[in-house]
Amino acid sequence: MLHIKKGSNGEKLTWNYLLIESNIYSASFTCNDGHFGSLLDHVILDNGRVEPSVVCTYEDCTFHDYITLDGWNSNGPKSEGYV
Q: How far apart are the first and last CA of the chain?
């Protein structure tokens, strides 16, 4: 299980909130090769665990792992004091 910290988009092995619709969030992430992706087709549990495993869709990228989004809050960034 790989733990990924919250960070800015573009920073390797980080995630950020992705607003789907009013008060419904998913996440974007950057793999260890710096490729950007989304977790729209995954389930993010309340503890940040992502199911199923995450595969980078960029050609020739080998990133494939089970991940946990450290600091994930299913209520989104407003619950953390962000706009």
A: 30
